Structures are given as structure tokens and as C-alpha cells.
Amino acid sequence: MDPFRDFARSKDNTLGVEWEIALVDPVTRDLVPRAAEVIDEVHARHPDIHLEREFLQNTIELVTPVCVNTKQATQALQRNLDAIKEVADEKGLKLWASGGHPFSDFRTNPLSPKHTYEEIVNRTQYWGQHMLLWGIHCHVGISHEDKVWPIINAVMTKYPHLLAISASSPGWDGIDTGYASNRTMLYQQLPTAGMPYQFQNWDEWVGFMRDQQTSGVINHTGSMHFDVRPAAKWGTIEVRISDATSNLRELAAVVALTHCLIVHYDQMLERGEQLPTLQQWHVAENKWRGARYGMEALVITSRETDEDWVTNELRLLIDELTPTAADLDCLGELRLVEEIIERGAGYQRQRAIYERTGDWKDVVDATCAEMWDLTL
């Protein structure tokens, strides 16, 4: 099997979700590098639960099995979360999830022992050391590699939509950055991360990946870490745009929107319809606007540079995707996007607390509480 050319075609538009959460000290509210011992204990009690060590020793990645829809995925994540909480409670630790921690010092957070992680930091130095970042990754099954890049390019036209509802990283190193998602700006500093190029077909992607191997890029980093990328081994498109949400209720909204969007574009291709695209510079501008302004972003909506508020766009998108959501039996989860619009995204809630109290510890406490207060 050629690891670059061969795409493990998925029969159905299956769904897989990865959710990164972290451990914090209930007194200091700082991150705690004890993920390995928590994961090992959970696996000892529940061998069938899939958890992964991540880039930092404070992080646990919850991984679903292959699912048919958002409901099935979030049910699996809830079971995983409950098992982690049981062990964390016994060890006197709290669970926390967000796009970025508002005051933890990156210099005091050790890497997990993995060669590719060490290579990333050795290669990228200062910027690689800043990766105190947590996200949601959604895999959606695709039936043929010829569909992959048209769908990815179309998904990128909805970048600020997926980011705005999940944005939850306004604080960094004890300051309010003024961004809804500081994670987005930090992560793109890695040379293998950021927006994918607008490849027109699978052969262009294969050539690119072979160039990365020849030039040694992949040897250093293990893979490309684009915001949306093919996962050829699994036969999926992996969407990595969203900040980690503090709770499963908002995660369900993010996952449903992502799943429905990709399935909708897949069905358009099946009908012979043309998918939407934007110029690369419009996509880049929208990404920045989503990271900076979140739910208050004015986004570019067409190749003619029309604009609209992202909240208006989200409501239109819910209407457009409602038939797809009904087919996938995730209409209730998709409509949770409206709830985020009304309640405010994670960064808005965090910023309001910080402006009121002037203490990021209060923000961490509230974010920890949301994991159990905002339930499905």
C-alpha cells in the first residue's frame, strides 16, 4: 500500500471524533502533567475505552469508535468522560477543556515521551514550545479520493462558522489577547500547520506529500497538521478547525455541523453539482476574522466579496443543512448551534468573568463546572 496515494475508501459517511481535555489542580487551577497515570488507570478498569496520550503530559484525548452520527459519538464520549472523572476525582484532580489555558506557563508543561513530539519542538523551538492548545477533530468517511479536495476546499469556505461556535481561548499568559481563539493564531505558527493549500485533485496532494517526505518535513513531524486534511489510512476527511469546547453539549453542536456540512457537500458531488470555493486570500481573511472576532465576525461569503455576520450565516446554514441532519438523525444536535448563538460562545463567557473579577482562576473554575453543568 502506498501511504500517500492509497485512500481507504469509506462505504458510508461514518463519523469519528477526538476531544482533547486536560487535568488541572483544584487549588492552583494550573495544568497538571498526570495524564498518563489517569489513562492507565482508566484502561485497567475499562479496557475497551479508547484514550490517547497527547502532545503534553497534562492532556487526555478521548476517541470515539466509528459512529453513524453525532448522537452515537457523544454517547461514547460521555462514557469515556465519566470513567476519566471517576479516576480524576480519586486523585484530587479536575477535568477542564478549552482552546487554551489562560495563564499556565508553557515552560512548566512537559511533553509526552514521543519521538515526533520531541522532533516538532526541536525543529520549531520557541513556537513549538507554545503549544498549550486543545481542539476537536472530526473524521468523516468519504467513498472516493477524487471527492476529497473539492470537499475540503468547500469546507474551508465555512471556516469562521466552525470556529466561532467553538472559540474558547481568549486568555494567554495571564492577559486577555483580544482574540476569540488565540489557539488558532498560535497553532498556525508551526510550519506544517495552518490552512491547507487549495489542491485541485488527489494527484496534486500525493505529489505534495512526496515532496514533504523527500525534503525531510514529514520525517521531523510525522505528518502535516493542516486545519482540514485527508486521513488516507482511515478513508476520511479530518476537520481540525474548532477549539475544544468545555462541555459535550457544545461539542455536539460542533460535531453535528461538521458532519452535516461534509455529507451535504458529498451529496452535492453525487448530484453533479459544483461546490462553493473562495479565493485563498478570502479564506485566510475569514480565518483571521473568526479567530479575532468569533461570534461577532463579519465574514466574506462569496468570490465577489459579499459579506455577512457569521451569526446570520450560521442560521442560514442550519436551514440549509436541516434535511441532511434529518437523514443523519442529528437534527437536535445541529440546532444546538442556535443555543450557542443565544448563550454566547466559550470565549464570551470566559471574557465576561475575567472582566468582572479580574482573576483567570475564576474563569478556570467556571470552565471546569461547565463540563457537568452544560450536559446533553
UniProtKB/TrEMBL annotation:
The EC number(s) attached to this protein equal: 6.3.2.2
- Record GO terms (molecular function): ligase activity
An example Pfam family from this entry, by short name, is GCS2
- Give the reaction(s) catalysed: L-cysteine + L-glutamate + ATP = gamma-L-glutamyl-L-cysteine + ADP + phosphate + H(+)
Q: Which UniProt keywords apply?
A: ATP-binding, Ligase, Nucleotide-binding
Q: Which SUPFAM superfamilies match?
A: Glutamine synthetase/guanido kinase
- Cited InterPro entries: GCL_type2/YbdK_subfam, GCS2, Gln_synth/guanido_kin_cat_dom, YbdK
Query: Which superkingdom?
Result: Bacteria
Against HAMAP family, the record matches this protein to: Glu_cys_ligase_2
Q: Which PANTHER family match?
A: GLUTAMATE--CYSTEINE LIGASE 2-RELATED
NCBIfam families xrefs = gshA_cyan_rel, PRK13517.1-2, PRK13517.1-4
Q: What is the protein name for this chain?
A: Putative glutamate--cysteine ligase 2
Q: What organism, scientifically named, is this protein from?
A: Corynebacterium jeddahense
The organism that produces this protein has a lineage beginning with:
Bacteria, Bacillati, Actinomycetota, Actinomycetes, Mycobacteriales
Q: Gene behind this chain? A: ybdK2
